[in-house]
Amino acid sequence: MAAAKKKDGADGLEPVIENRRARHDYAIEETLECGIELLGTEVKSVRHGHASLAEGWVLAEDEPPKLSLQNVHIAEYPPAGAHRQHEPNRPRRLLAHKREIRRLAVEVRARGASLVPLKMYFLRGKV
């Protein structure tokens, strides 16, 4: 699991999880900042820096428009107990505008491009 760097922010306590290998393996043509739909235990685990983007990729569908983050590992949060845990590698929905999602889906299908997550961080209390 990749170590998380601390982000220089107002409190300096939020981790930044990066996929440094992706910048080496792929030619990054453009970036898109979007939100992610997480469960409570996942947010707490990410806040502690227990996430890895190393094997992650994004699936883009144009009908209905949907982006989903695949194969990203967010470790279980032990204080939550056994009955309230999340699946560590489950698909997670990414939040973006419909026209951006459709454009990305068409581009992936037409050019054979890949969508890879580069960075996960907190912005105004949200991942």
How would you describe the overall organization of this protein?
- There is one protein chain.
- This protein is an alpha+beta fold.
- The protein is 22% helix and 24% strand.
- The protein has helices spanning 20-25, 40-47, 98-111; strands at 5-6, 15-18, 35-36, 51-52, 57-62, 65-70, 73-74, 92-95, 119-120.
- The strands form 3 sheets. A 4-stranded antiparallel β-sheet has the order 3-8-6-5, covered by helices on one side.
- β1 (5-6) and β2 form a beta hairpin.
- The mean pLDDT is 87.
Keywords:
single chain, 127 residues, alpha+beta, 3-stranded antiparallel β-sheet, 3 helices
Describe the structure concisely.
About 20% of the residues lie in helices and about 25% in strands. The chain is an alpha+beta fold and about 130 residues long.
Chain-wise SSE layout:
Layout: E1 5-6, E2 15-18, H1 20-25, E3 35-36, H2 40-47, E4 51-52, E5 57-62, E6 65-70, E7 73-74, E8 92-95, H3 98-111, E9 119-120
Antiparallel strand pairs: 1-2, 2-9, 3-8, 4-7, 5-6, 6-8
Low-confidence stretches: none
Largest sheet: 4 strands, antiparallel
> What's the tally of helices?
3
Q: What's the end-to-end separation, in Å?
A: 19 Å
Number of DSSP E strands: 9
In N-to-C order, the SSE pattern is EEHEHEEEEEHE
Q: What is the overall silhouette? A: globular
Radius of gyration: 15 Å
In percent, how much strand structure appears in the residues? 15-25%
Structural class, from secondary structure content?
Answer: alpha+beta
Percentage of residues assigned to helices: 10-25%
Quaternary structure state of the chains depicted: single chain
Biggest sheet: strand arrangement: 3-8-6-5
Mean pLDDT score: 87
